[in-house]
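Subject: Re: docking follow-up (magnesium ion)

Dear J.,

Thanks for your patience while I sorted out the input files. As discussed at Tuesday's group meeting, I've set up the holo structure prediction with magnesium ion included as the bound ligand rather than trying to dock it afterwards. The sequence and the ligand SMILES I used are pasted below, so you can double-check that they match what you have on your end before we go further.
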Amino acid sequence: MLEFVSHSPEETRRVGELLGQLAKPEDVLCLYGDLGAGKTHFSQGVAKGLGVEEYVNSPTFTLINEYQGHYPFYHMDVYRLGDADDMADLGYEEYFYGEGVTLIEWADVVKEVLPDSRLDIEITSLGETERQLRFIPVGSRFENLVEELSKFVHTGN
Ligand SMILES: Nc1ncnc2c1ncn2[C@@H]1O[C@H](COP(=O)(O)OP(=O)(O)O)[C@@H](O)[C@H]1O
Ligand SMILES: [Mg+2]
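The structure tokens for the complex came back this morning:
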């Protein structure tokens, strides 16, 4: 597990960018945190790290936005989904096990369908501009990824 305290939206985006640079096709990144925690800022960083040049905004109403970087980037916001059943209608398996990197905001809504290999990222607000980011790997691919990431992220520990 890796823990990091961000002190600004830019810092949160920068950490996302580092993760985006390390991400590979079939990676599933699951974001948890309340409204305004910083999930979309983090996602914008991931997109940048993946080489996406388009502006990335929250897909709250569209559920999913697709971008093209070095790989496809599937940005989901499942807040408005009732539960994991609705996720089947979305054809989520084609994204999870496809050619690109998937990122899901509000992943707890669809926890039943999340893959056994994934990276959980919890964002908690500690104050106006302080956010705690916790990276919890599930499966060996993400244990390695978090170890890589920790070489680039300075936790102050
Ligand atoms: N350290 C920080 N990291 C990310 N966002 C921050 C931070 N400090 C303040 N903020 C603010 O919190 C809000 C986060 O918004 P957003 O990324 O859309 O959150 P979410 O997608 O989780 O609802 C923005 O208004 C942003 O300016
Ligand atoms: Mg958001």
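A couple of observations from a first look. Residues 2-139+147-152 form a domain with the Rossmann fold fold (CATH 3.40.50.300). Residues 9-22 form the longest helix (14 residues).

Let me know if you'd like me to rerun anything.

Best regards,
T.
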